[in-house]
Amino acid sequence: MSSNPLLAPIPGADSRDVGHVKLDVVRTGHARVKRMIYPAGFRWSKDMKPVVGSDLCMHAHVGFLAQGQIHIQYSDGCVVEYQAPAVVAIDPGHDGWVVGPEPAVLIEFDFERDTINKLGVPAQHRH
Question: How many domains are contained in the chain?
Fold first, then answer.
């Protein structure tokens, strides 16, 4: 067990590994609260693209980056960097990767396929 509480097991969570990401999901009401641990060296286009099958991540991410640093790049070339602690809102249609030697820990709130509508996130990135 890790001495870092951000990395410790979450009692009652549905835990799995997907594309090298450790994912813990807890349902609360109609939402899901997810802890996503992205390891150092993770890149969506390298690690998740083969699992998901799309060129870019088409999921919206809304939450709190509790540890680490991530780089987000949209298909139009727009770049956004987040460094913990930070609130994040990432539109669908992005590639992303962990910057630096420590894992990135994102606490995310979602409504599965209805995340965009429920949270008011754009369906695609715009300037």
Answer: 1
Q: How far apart are CA 30 and CA 73, in angstroms?
A: 30
Would residue 125 count as lying in a domain? no
30 token code pair: 């109609």
Q: What is the pLDDT of residues 24-73, one digit of tens each?
A: 999 999 999 999 999 999 999 999 999 999 999 999 999 999 999 999 99
Task: Report CA 16 to chain centroid distance, whole Å.
Answer: 14
Residues 6+ apart with CB under 8 A from 120: none
Tokens linked to 6: 């951000």
Closest to 91 (Cα-Cα) out of 65, 44, 43, 127: 127
Distance (Å, whole) CA 47 – CA 38: 10
Residue given tokens 């998740």 in the structure block: 48
Residue type, 9: P
pTM for the structure as a whole: 0.92
Q: The domain spanning residue 109 has which CATH number?
A: 2.60.120.10
Distance CA 18, CA 42 (A): 12
